[in-house]
Amino acid sequence: MAPAPPMRLFTLVRARGGPRILPIYSQRFFCQSPKLRMDFETILQGKYPAKRHAQRVSEYIRSKIPNATGVLYLESRATKLLEDNDEAEPFRQRRYFYYLTGCNLADCYVIHDMDTSKSTLFIPPVDPESVIWSGLPVSAEEAKEKYDVDEVRYTSDLNATLANVGANKANATIYAIPHQVSEQVTFLEFDHKNFSILKEAIEVTRVVKDEYELALIAKANAVSEKAHVAVLENVKNAQNERELEAIFLAECISKGARHQAYHSIVASGRAAATLHYVHNNAPMAGKLNLLLDAGAEWDCYASDITRTFPINGKFSPESRAIYDIVLKMQLECIAALREGVVWDDVHLLAHKIAIDGLLELGILKGDKDEILANRTSVAFFPHGLGHYLGMDTHDTGGNPNYNDTDTMFRYLRVRGPLPAGCVITVEPGIYFCNFIIEPFLRDPKHSKYIDAAVLEKYWDVGGVRIEDNIVVTKTGSENLTTVVKDPAEMERIIAAN
């Protein structure tokens, strides 16, 4: 169920220790989609819908090239040894290949006949020399049972199969991706070769997810929920950020998710103002908050979740005031989502809410329309509201414009209307980063809108970000993220441990 339209969610009160924006939201804003939560395990008992994806890609190609005929060709990631070592590098499957196969094996190939809709997967044959070290590989029979393809052959048959298909297709085209074709592979029998459209076709079709893909992202979120809660339960007694990163990773691995969607951000105190903080090794004593941006990956599909909470189990008045502004930004932006909504407009809404909140706290001063027009709020909310999510954390198809002269939209990773079926992160934040804010304080265009004396009380807040993974629907949205974000509940969990 989509979140209800926001009513009066927040009220400003004066309290000991400073002003606070108190939420008066209903618990319904924290209820996630029961359907998606209940069904994903059942959905994932089926096969990854690779052939359906191949057909969608073919349809896209034909929308650009009428009457297109031929074969789609893709390669998996090849095994690569570490330098000065006899072991392979950590394997990450090539996402374009996975989209048309659901196969997470190295050194494979796939061809999909656009005319017959037949998919043929090529896997490595048994190498007797490697069996003693690595065991038996997947057999052709096992692969046929596991993956959504019509036929499985061995890679030793690849060139002969390509030659046969090309020779028997009049005026046929082979579609491939530049720099993703091995030197030993030949397309000599094909009349035409197209290296320009396939990558685009896959990137565009990946934006709208089918039920199985949503189930994979929901599963990644479910695993990540357990890991986020484990960090909440241990944060009060941790001495260093690395302890909490280890707890998160251990919980994910124990639940079957060996891979992370991205390098975790475990930022305490002022480090939370660094958007992509990577050190995760600082002591936490004496610091107010922890920002945890971390998400597991499940069968190549990502989750991307951020929570910010007090290390000692109780928000300071300043931290709680900023948290409540960010939560209001997120809830109202989620409530605005539906098919066709322009993401740029939702991002603008987040800035307007941030300006209202910072004005109430006295950090900003002056006319809110002037503050918006001058882009002064970018000092506190410098990044985009979110991005598409799928096989990549920053998934394909967003059409960003990093050369935009408007600083409010320059780092927005998605531009334009949102289609139903896309998954997008909603991750507003407010940050107190000296490096970013101090130039605004020195610029008369912006400094007249910032009260430096009030700002001084907020530096130790560091940064607050709240991030969920949202499915856009025709009439609203569904939230795949089940991690607690109610500030009182987070405080309760921390204090109880």
Question: Mind sketching the topology for me?
Answer:
Elements: E1 10-15, E2 18-23, H1 34-43, H2 50-64, E3 70-75, H3 95-99, E4 109-113, E5 118-123, H4 128-134, H5 140-146, E6 151-154, H6 158-167, E7 173-175, E8 192-194, H7 198-205, H8 211-234, H9 241-254, E9 265-268, E10 289-294, E11 297-298, E12 301-302, E13 305-310, H10 317-335, H11 343-361, H12 368-374, E14 423-426, E15 429-431, H13 434-442, H14 444-447, H15 452-455, E16 463-465, E17 468-472, E18 477-479, H16 487-495
Parallel strand pairs: 3-7, 5-6, 7-8
Antiparallel strand pairs: 1-2, 3-4, 4-5, 9-10, 10-13, 11-12, 14-17, 15-16, 17-18
Question: Into which percentage range does the β-strand content fall?
Answer: 15-25%
> Strand order of the main beta sheet, please?
6-5-4-3-7-8
Tell me the major beta sheet. Answer: 6 strands, mixed
Shape: globular
Mean pLDDT: 92
Distance between the termini: 33 Å
The tally of strands reads: 18
Poorly predicted tracts of residues: 1-36
Helical content stands at: 25-40%
- CA-based gyration radius: 25 Å
The helix tally amounts to: 16
Structural class: alpha+beta
Verbal overview:
The structure is a single chain. The protein is an alpha+beta fold and 497 residues long. It has helices spanning 34-43, 50-64, 95-99, 128-134, 140-146, 158-167, 198-205, 211-234, 241-254, 317-335, 343-361, 368-374, 434-442, 444-447, 452-455, 487-495, and strands at residues 10-15, 18-23, 70-75, 109-113, 118-123, 151-154, 173-175, 192-194, 265-268, 289-294, 297-298, 301-302, 305-310, 423-426, 429-431, 463-465, 468-472, 477-479. The strands form 6 sheets. Strands 6-5-4-3-7-8 form a 6-stranded mixed sheet, sandwiched between helices. Helix 1 crosses helix 8, helix 2 crosses helix 7 and helix 10 (317-335) runs antiparallel to helix 11. Mean pLDDT is 92; it is low at 1-36.
